[in-house]
From TrEMBL:
Species name: Micromonospora noduli
PROSITE patterns: HELICASE_ATP_BIND_1, HELICASE_CTER
Stated name of the protein: ATP-dependent helicase YprA
Location of the Helicase C-terminal domain: 324-479
Domain Helicase ATP-binding: from-to ranges: 95-272
Keywords attached to this entry: ATP-binding, Helicase, Hydrolase, Nucleotide-binding
SMART domains from the UniProt entry: DEXDc, HELICc
Length: 806
């Protein structure tokens, strides 16, 4: 059997195999223009060619495998009935390992059919053993609901799959606990509901044969570290009931998945990484928006941020949002089914709105074929957008990467990626949405005006020649470990054996909990002393999501995570929802809601914060003569203090208004370097220019760190000062934006020379004269990008690099 034969069974074999989502949407309209022709037309629009590199990603033929002999005929028939003629090689390999009892992770590309790899062994076992049960975990309720539809559609006797999450009616919960043998839930529900209620779940847990962890690459950073301990708590309860389930994990392509899965589960895990599913070739272009001419009013009716505070000081590139909106409008006008990934929810709304406007200007009504999609939408709204795409009413969609976890959209003709998504793993996952089987597709990375994106579009080897990153999580983070041990102690007293289960740092954390009066040691173990359970939020430091409510109607528009609420929903903020503009009247942090009213002012709002930092302890350092490089704990205090209003049409700053929001404290991990004042003077940095030099170096260093660590710019913060009281020297700090750290600063410290070398090159290679967002300006600067000195930043980094050992 060839892959073509296989493909002709249903026409869209890759989609059928990706049964993790019943809402899989395959491209409806006929094929658009060939990607190479399309790209030629897109890049010919302006005076200068914006494309810096074109990479051809070749097509791949699929490698099918026979059904495992242990798979019962009933199960094979059910899959065949759903269009799966046979598994691909990687699906069969992972399924066989899991069926033999090995913990396994299948880490392959988008739409490679990972769900069959766990459905096969799990469902075969449930059918063969009338008592066996399966627990399936997805990072979102939406994904669990999609997976439920996929399993239910197989119509297998006696499986009774059911979702058990916050939306499950009380009346159904007992039935599910007693009768369902395939329960789909999420880590939050496992943590808040199932584990604390383990007595009620004893029947289910006693018979647990498989734990499926879908999209497990999303469990990274602090959230991932929490989930790692929730899984240890699950293993502990299973062991108490005599069950030792097999763990099957599914992940996007990632570096060293076996190690990451081992850290997540605490078990030895075998990795299957060879993707044997077929896919079409992709033409991948790197796109750098042009620098705007000095007199912007002549060239573009709507230059972004081109006037106001920046115009006299700095040159500016056309914004990636506008460039992406134009590309989206152009591809939709060509009848090309296009998905644009935009990093922020606000950005996705802006791209959709601008593309709609451009299309309506060309052909009234055509704008209706473009929409925005993001995680904060309510379920009904998401489903409506999915339906519209399914029926071809929509051709263009602008989305945050929430889509990665919501509906499974594959087989698009073009994917636009507005700004580097932070990791090569995410980049490939997003680009993987393009390409129907046997057809060529186009992917375009549109560089944002920031140091990392600029560096990448000029160093394609850093994208196409480098392996994808490993998923970083740190279960030993004491800010995660202690609360998780407290939760575990409530579920059952902790024993010395449990300390082994919870791993490095567990004994110290227990000792601290005892000292704090939370645990009491008795001969039979450590006991929780309080009546109430500890309140632990897996999604961590951000706090509970804030509801966005329209005051006049009481309608819930959506939610914003707590960490972003100070920035996005402060009173006076302009908040976009589905292209409709709202103004926030009041942010009520106590009630977790923001009251808004529909209004379309001609300005946008930009929040500002101030930050203070003190060193708590030094963990490690390198003494390099006039330069010192440090890793340690710090306390960061920050507060959103004001916001700017800027005219949408011109970017002009109208005014800056104060805000009265509480400060937020953060004990975290930082990397920092110091330089002696003498070395700076020798390098030609005048004393008056030291603050601007350090500040510029800090911005660029933050911008380039994602090249080294699996974080994005918004996961980390920085502060620089010509004389810091704790270091008594000119200092640049870069810190993890998560309590207890998430491993990012540690990576930066470990790769300091390479990191700062890339930083220096990015600044030096930038074509601007005095600094721009592509090199030393930062979109999240609390000081309005002032002072900044680009040439002195290069001098500072040269001093560091000549002294620091590689
Ligand atoms: Zn620049
Ligand atoms: Zn700054």
């Amino acid at each position: 059997m060839t892959s073509n034969d296989f493909g002709s069974a249903r026409g869209t074999p890759r989609h059928d195999l990706e049964s993790s989502s019943a809402a899989t949407v395959s491209a409806g309209p006929g094929p658009g223009p060939a990607p190479a022709d399309l790209l030629r037309r897109l890049r010919a629009r302006g005076a200068a060619d914006p494309v810096t590199h074109v990479e051809r990603v070749p097509a791949r033929a699929g490698v099918p495998a026979p059904w495992p002999s242990w798979a019962p005929a009933e199960l094979r028939a059910a899959f065949t009935g759903r269009g799966v003629a046979a598994p691909w090689q990687h699906q069969a390999e992972a399924a066989n390992l899991a069926y033999e009892g090995q913990h396994v992770i299948v880490a392959t590309g988008t739409a490679s059919g990972k769900s069959l790899a766990y459905q096969l062994p799990a469902l075969a076992t449930v059918l063969a053993d009338p008592r066996a049960t399966v627990l399936y975990l997805a990072p979102t309720k939406a994904l669990a609901a999609d997976q439920l539809r996929a399993v239910a559609a197989l119509e297998l006797e006696g499986v009774r799959p059911a979702c058990y999450d916050g939306d499950t009616p009380r009346t159904e919960r007992e039935w599910i606990r007693r009768h369902s043998r395939f329960v789909l839930t999420n880590p939050d529900m496992l943590h808040h509901g199932i584990l604390p209620g383990h007595a009620q779940w004893s029947g289910f847990l006693r018979r647990l044969a498989y734990v499926v962890i879908d999209e497990c690459h999303t469990y990274r950073g602090v959230f991932g570290s929490h989930v790692a301990h929730v899984l240890r708590r699950l293993r502990r309860q299973c062991a108490r009931f005599g069950a030792t389930p097999v763990f099957v994990l599914a992940s996007a392509t990632s570096g060293d998945p076996a190690t990451a899965a081992g850290r997540l589960t605490g078990l030895p895990v075998t990795a299957v990484t060879e993707d044997a599913s077929p896919r079409g070739g992709v033409t991948f272009a790197l796109w750098e928006p042009p620098l705007l001419p000095p007199d912007t009013s002549a060239s573009s009716p709507v230059p972004p941020q081109a006037t106001g505070e920046h115009d006299e000081l700095h040159q500016v590139r056309r914004s990636a949002l506008r460039e992406t909106a134009d590309l989206l409008a152009d591809t939709v006008a060509e009848g090309v089914r296009t998905l644009a990934f935009v990093r922020s929810r606000k950005g996705a709304e802006v791209v959709a709105a601008n593309a709609r406007r451009a299309l309506d200007d060309a052909v009234p009504g055509l704008g209706d074929r473009v929409a925005a999609y993001r995680g904060g939408y309510l379920r009904e709204e998401r489903r409506e957008l999915e339906r519209a795409l399914l029926h071809g009413d929509l051709l263009g969609l602008a989305s945050t990467n929430a889509l990665e976890l919501g509906v499974d959209l594959v087989g698009l003709d073009a994917v636009l990626i507005c700004g580097y998504p932070g990791t090569r793993a995410s980049l490939w996952q997003q680009a993987g949405r393009a390409g129907r089987s046997g057809q060529e597709a186009l992917a375009v990375l549109v560089a944002r005006d920031d140091p990392l994106d600029t560096y990448l579009v000029h160093h394609p080897e850093a994208i196409f020649g480098a392996p994808v990153e490993a998923t970083v999580l740190d279960p030993a983070n004491p800010y995660v470990l202690a609360p998780q041990l407290a939760c575990a102690a409530v579920e059952a007293p902790l024993t010395p054996a449990d300390l082994v289960l919870f791993g490095e740092g567990a004994k110290e954390a227990v000792d601290e909990l005892v000292a704090a009066g939370a645990l009491r040691q008795r001969p039979t173990g450590w006991y929780w002393r309080h009546r109430e359970r500890p309140e632990v939020d897996l999604r961590g430091e951000g706090g509970a999501p804030v509801a966005v409510v329209e005051s006049s109607t009481g309608r819930l528009l959506g939610t914003v995570d707590g960490g972003s609420s100070h920035f996005l929903l402060h009173s006076g903020a302009v908040y976009l929802h589905q292209g409709v503009s709202y103004v926030v009247d009041q942010l009520d942090l106590a009630d977790g809601c923001a009251l808004v009213r529909a209004e379309e002012p001609d300005w946008s709002t930009h929040a500002r914060d101030v930050t203070d930092l003190s060193v708590v302890s030094v963990r490690s350092y390198v003494d390099a003569g006039p330069v010192g490089m440090f890793l340690g704990e710090v306390d960061v205090t920050s507060q959103v203090v004001s916001y700017q209003r800027r005219r949408i049409a011109t970017g002009e700053v109208i005014d800056t208004r104060p805000l009265d929001l509480p400060t937020r404290e953060l004990r975290t991990v930082a990397v920092w370097f110091t330089l002696s004042p003498q070395s700076l003077a020798l390098a030609g940095v005048q004393p008056a220019d030291v603050p601007g030099a350090l500040h510029a170096a800090e911005h660029a260093a933050i911008g380039l760190l994602p090249l080294m660590a699996t974080c994005d710019r918004w996961d980390i913060g920085g502060i620089s000062t010509a004389l810091h009281p704790d270091t008594e020297a000119p200092t640049v700090f870069v810190y993890d934006g998560h309590p207890g750290g998430a491993g990012f600063a540690e990576r930066a410290y470990g790769t300091a020379a390479a990191w700062l070398r890339a930083t220096r090159d990015a600044i030096a290679e930038c074509g601007c004269d005095t600094g721009c967002p592509s090199c030393v300006q930062s979109p999240k600067c609390g000081n309005g990008n002032n002072p900044l000195s680009k040439p002195d930043a290069i001098r500072v980094l040269d001093v560091v690099l000549t002294n620091l050992p590689d």
